[in-house]
Amino acid sequence: QQQVKQSPQSLIVQKGGISIINCAYENTAFDYFPWYQQFPGKGPALLIAIRPDVSEKKEGRFTISFNKSAKQFSLHIMDSQPGDSATYFCAASSGDSWGKLQFGAGTQVVVTP
Amino acid sequence: DGGITQSPKYLFRKEGQNVTLSCEQNLNHDAMYWYRQDPGQGLRLIYYSQIVNDFQKGDIAEGYSVSREKKESFPLTVTSAQKNPTAFYLCASSGRGGDQETQYFGPGTRLLVL
Question: Please, what's the b/e burial string for B26-54 (b: 16 or more CB within 10 A of its CB; e: otherwise)?
Answer without folding.
Answer: eeebbbbbbbbbeeeebbbbbbbbbeeee
